[in-house]
Design goal:
With about 290 residues, the chain is mostly helical. It folds into two domains: about 1-30, no CATH class; about 30-290, no CATH class. The chain contains 13 helices and eight strands. The chain has helices spanning about 5-15, 20-30, 40-55, 65-80, 90-105, 115-130, 135-145, 150-175, 180-185, 185-195, 200-215, 220-230, 280-290, and strands at about 85, 235, 240-245, 250, 265-270, 270-275, 275, 280. It is globular, with a radius of gyration of 22 Å. The termini are far apart.
Length: about 290
């Protein structure tokens, strides 16, 4: 049976005040998208290009807007803002600080991860319930026209997150020695777990942005979207957010991999890395950073 728009809106309004029928309300308000219009196809490319620019943006940090976005993320996640936002010049220094303070600060009442994965599960479930799988595949194909699939995974897992993890492990292995390093291996996972989706997760954030434009509720990600625009990697704990700026330099090859000849491929204040077609140069890192 088909309803006109006015009747549908009236029915949804009525259901919103009748707690006995939450399932019926969900069915009535759910959006089902099986195909895209020509305008939506165009919008897909527009949003893709916007997020690629965000991923490789090297603008100076806008601390006020970044902190507002982080506060919004916390507000949605746990109903309150962090008690403190701590800034570091680069993600290596930030990760080292987190690791050095982890045992003291990881007490449940003070320093534990906000429920990020619940965020994404809720949003993903909403998308899966509303969007035909062919549209998800079309969105991924649209991205692959600009950035190949291999790079998409590399971006999400390695562009900044695994990139930092790699250098952190190298740095602390050299600083601590083999024995202490091995006893602390489990702590590295705690640092990774607290890391928040950001400018390095362009595919996930762009996809959610596109589906939001189609009318699907992805509003829980508003803080993530804004933070990705105004700061770099950041870590979220119950009372403290640890934040870094975007890199000041990002050099890439034709396949969007970190790469530069004879100079750093990525630069932060106090930290840089030489990368050749996506492969880190361990010798130069040791000579420059570990000296």
């Amino acid at each position: 049976m088909k309803y006109n728009i006015a009747f549908r809106q009236s029915l949804v309004t009525w259901l919103s005040v009748v707690p006995l029928f939450p399932q019926l309300k969900t069915l009535m308000t759910r959006i089902n998208i099986n195909r895209l219009t020509a305008e939506q196809e165009t919008l897909m490319s527009v949003i893709r290009d916007e997020w690629i620019k965000i991923a490789f943006d090297t603008s100076p940090v806008n601390q006020e807007k970044a902190e507002a976005a982080i506060n919004l993320t916390y507000k949605i996640a746990q109903g309150s803002q962090p008690k403190q936002i701590v800034w570091f010049d680069n993600p290596l220094d930030a990760a080292i600080w987190i690791l050095e303070n982890l045992h003291e600060l990881n007490k449940p009442k003070y320093f534990s991860v906000i429920p990020e994965y619940t965020y994404w599960d809720d949003v993903l479930n909403n998308i899966y319930n509303c969007v035909h799988p062919n549209i998800s595949s079309k969105f991924e194909h649209n991205f692959n026209k600009v950035i190949n699939c291999k790079y998409l995974h590399w971006t999400s897992q390695c562009f900044l997150s695994d990139f930092v993890d790699y250098h952190l492990r190298l740095y602390l292995h050299n600083l601590w020695g083999e024995e202490k390093y091995l006893t602390r291996l489990g702590d590295f996972e705690d640092v990774d777990d607290a890391e928040v989706h950001g400018m390095h997760d362009i595919y996930h954030l762009a996809a959610a942005s596109f589906y939001s434009a189609l009318g699907i509720d992805c509003s829980k990600l508003r803080g993530y979207w804004e933070a990705a625009k105004y700061c770099g990697l950041w870590w979220a704990f119950t009372d403290i957010a640890v934040v870094t700026p975007k890199p000041s330099v990002i050099n890439l090859d034709s396949e969007y991999r970190l790469h530069a000849e004879g100079k750093p491929a990525i630069v932060y204040r106090g930290f840089e890395s030489h990368v050749h077609h996506g492969n880190f140069n361990e010798q130069i890192f040791k000579a420059v950073t570990l000296a």
